[in-house]
C-alpha cells in the first residue's frame, strides 16, 4: 500500500496548477483577464454605436442622427425659391449628410460583424468554457487529494478496506487525468489563438481609420466643389417666364404638340452627346447665370445646343429645375402613397410587379415623360464607375424633384422632408435599376450631328434606341453597337 501511495505522489503537496507544465500554467493566467477585457470592451464599444445592433445598413441609416439632420435640411430648403443660394447649398448639404449617414451605417455593420460579434463570442462562449473546465479540474484535483489522504490514513486497517480506498484513489486519478487532458487542450488552443484575438482590436482601428478617411475624402471633395459653384453663382431676382417652366405638363405638351416636354427632351439630347461619363452629373451645381440663360432659351423655344452642351452641369441643372417647378410632380400627387407601398415589397419580383401596377395608373403624358427620363438615367448609371452616379446616387439627387406630397399642414411638410431624403430613394432606385423590365417600350433618342472638329466617336450615336426588342437588350451608348441575347 505504501508503494502504491508513493507512485501516486502521496508525499507531495500538489494543487491543480502543479499538474500543468510551466508553459500551460503561464497561459492559464491569461484566460481570465482575456475574458474580462473582451467583455468590458464589447460593452463600451457597443455603446459607441449610433444605431441599433442587428439591423442592416439601410435600416440603420434611417435611424441615425445624421439622417435626421438630412431630413431637417430637406424640410428647410423647400421653403426657399428654386434659385436661392441658400436652397442650393442646403440641397447639396442634405445629399451629403445622407451619404455620410450611409457611410456610417455601413461602417457600423462591418464593425459589428468583424469586431463586436467575435468579442461577444469570446467572452460569453469560448473563454467561459475554458474557465468551466478549469473549475472542474480544480475540483477533481481536490477530490484526488482527499482520496489519497484517506488511503494514507488507512495504513494498518483491514486489507479489504485498504483495497476499497485504493480503488477510490485510482478512480479519482482517472477522472483527474481525463479533465487534465481536456483542460490542457483548451489552454493550448487558447495559446494558439491569442494572436487572432489581439487582431480584433487591430481590426477595430483599421475600420475606424477607413471610415474616417472615406468620410473626410467625401467631405473635402464636395466642399471644394460646393464652394467653387457657390462663389460663381448669383441670386436670381425674378422668376421664370412661365412659358415652359412652371407650366402644367399636359398644357405644355398640348400647346407644343410634343409627347416629351421640351426641357426633358432637349436637355437629355445635349447630355447624350458627351456627358454620360461626366462625374457628378445632377449632383454638382453649375453657374446660376448659365442655368438661367438655358432656361430662358428653353422657355422661348430657341435652343442653341452648341452654346450649352459644353456645360453638362448647367444642362442637368436646367432639367432638375424644370422637374421641381412643375405644379404637380411627374409621378403625381395622387399616387404618392402607392409608390412607397410598391417599393416596400421585400421580394424583388413582387416589388417590380407592384411598380408596374402603379406605372399603369399614371396619366399617359406622365408615363411617357417618366419612361423617357428613367431610361436615360439607366444609361447614365451604366457608366457609374466613371461618373460616380449609381442608381442610388441618382435617386438621392433627382428623387425629390420627381415625387413629393401635397404640402398642406405640418404633417405633410414632415412627409415631404422624409420623402426627399429617405423614402423616395427606395422608389426611384429600382426604377433605374430595372428600367428595361419596367419600361419594355424602346425609346428613340435623337442626337444631333457632332460639332465641327469633334471626334464623331465622342458623340456615341446620332440615333440611338434603348429597350427590349424580341428578347434582346440593346445598349446604344457605345462606339460600336452590341446586344445581349435574352431578357434581363
TrEMBL record:
Any Pfam family: BAR
Cellular compartment(s): Cytoplasm, Cytosol
GO CC terms of this entry: cytosol
Coiled coil start-end: 166-229
Domain BAR: from-to ranges: 9-235
GO biological process, one term: signal transduction
Ranges for domain Rho-GAP: 247-439
Molecular function in Gene Ontology: GTPase activator activity
Family matches, as SUPFAM superfamilies: BAR/IMD domain-like, GTPase activation domain, GAP
Gene3D superfamilies listed in its UniProt record: Arfaptin homology (AH) domain/BAR domain, Rho GTPase activation protein
Alphabetized UniProt keyword annotations: Coiled coil, Cytoplasm, GTPase activation, Phosphoprotein
Keyword Ligase among record annotations: no
PROSITE patterns reported for this sequence: BAR, RHOGAP
Membrane spanning stretches: none
This protein's name: SH3-domain binding protein 1
Organism expressing this protein natively: Albula goreensis
Amino acid at each position: 500500500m505504501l508503494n502504491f501511495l508513493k507512485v501516486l505522489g502521496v508525499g507531495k503537496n500538489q494543487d491543480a496548477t502543479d499538474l500543468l507544465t510551466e508553459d500551460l500554467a503561464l497561459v492559464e493566467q491569461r484566460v481570465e483577464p482575456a475574458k474580462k477585457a473582451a467583455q468590458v470592451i464589447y460593452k463600451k464599444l457597443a455603446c459607441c454605436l449610433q444605431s441599433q445592433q442587428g439591423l442592416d445598413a439601410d435600416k440603420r441609416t434611417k435611424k441615425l442622427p445624421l439622417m435626421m439632420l438630412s431630413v431637417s435640411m430637406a424640410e428647410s430648403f423647400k421653403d426657399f425659391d428654386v434659385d436661392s443660394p441658400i436652397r442650393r447649398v442646403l440641397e447639396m448639404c442634405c445629399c451629403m449628410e445622407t451619404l455620410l449617414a450611409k457611410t456610417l451605417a455601413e461602417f457600423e455593420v462591418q464593425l459589428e460583424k468583424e469586431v463586436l460579434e467575435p468579442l461577444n463570442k469570446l467572452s460569453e462562449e469560448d473563454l467561459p468554457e475554458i474557465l468551466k473546465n478549469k473549475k472542474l479540474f480544480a475540483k477533481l484535483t481536490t477530490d484526488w487529494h482527499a482520496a489519497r489522504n484517506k488511503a494514507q490514513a488507512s495504513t494498518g486497517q483491514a486489507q479489504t478496506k485498504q483495497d476499497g480506498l485504493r480503488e477510490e484513489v485510482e478512480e479519482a486519478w482517472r477522472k483527474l487525468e481525463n479533465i487534465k487532458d481536456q483542460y490542457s487542450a483548451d489552454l493550448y488552443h487558447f495559446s494558439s489563438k491569442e494572436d487572432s484575438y489581439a487582431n480584433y482590436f487591430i481590426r477595430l482601428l483599421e475600420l475606424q481609420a477607413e471610415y474616417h478617411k472615406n468620410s473626410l475624402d467625401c467631405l473635402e471633395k464636395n466642399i471644394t466643389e460646393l464652394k467653387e459653384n457657390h462663389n460663381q453663382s448669383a441670386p436670381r431676382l425674378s422668376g421664370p417666364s412661365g412659358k415652359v417652366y412652371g407650366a402644367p405638363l399636359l398644357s405644355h405638351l398640348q400647346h407644343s404638340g410634343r409627347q416629351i416636354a421640351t426641357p426633358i427632351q432637349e436637355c437629355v439630347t445635349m447630355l447624350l452627346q458627351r456627358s454620360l461619363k461626366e462625374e457628378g452629373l445632377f449632383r454638382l451645381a453649375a453657374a446660376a447665370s448659365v442655368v438661367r440663360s438655358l432656361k430662358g432659351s428653353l422657355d422661348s423655344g430657341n435652343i442653341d445646343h452648341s452654346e450649352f452642351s459644353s456645360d453638362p452641369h448647367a444642362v442637368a441643372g436646367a432639367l432638375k429645375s424644370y422637374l421641381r417647378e412643375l405644379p404637380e410632380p411627374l409621378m403625381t400627387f395622387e399616387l404618392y402613397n402607392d409608390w412607397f407601398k410598391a417599393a416596400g415589397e421585400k421580394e424583388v419580383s413582387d416589388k417590380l410587379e407592384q411598380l408596374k401596377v402603379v406605372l399603369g395608373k399614371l396619366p399617359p403624358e406622365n408615363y411617357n415623360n417618366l419612361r423617357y427620363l428613367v431610361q436615360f438615367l439607366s444609361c447614365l448609371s451604366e457608366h457609374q464607375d466613371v461618373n460616380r452616379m449609381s442608381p442610388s446616387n441618382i435617386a438621392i439627387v433627382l428623387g425629390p424633384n420627381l415625387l413629393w406630397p401635397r404640402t398642406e399642414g405640418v404633417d405633410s411638410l414632415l412627409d415631404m422632408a422624409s420623402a426627399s431624403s429617405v423614402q423616395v430613394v427606395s422608389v426611384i432606385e429600382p426604377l433605374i435599376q430595372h428600367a428595361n423590365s419596367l419600361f419594355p417600350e424602346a425609346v428613340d433618342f435623337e442626337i444631333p450631328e457632332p460639332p465641327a472638329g469633334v471626334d464623331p466617336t465622342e458623340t456615341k450615336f446620332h440615333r440611338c434606341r434603348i429597350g427590349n426588342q424580341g428578347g434582346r437588350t440593346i445598349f446604344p451608348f457605345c462606339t460600336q453597337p452590341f446586344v445581349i441575347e435574352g431578357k434581363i
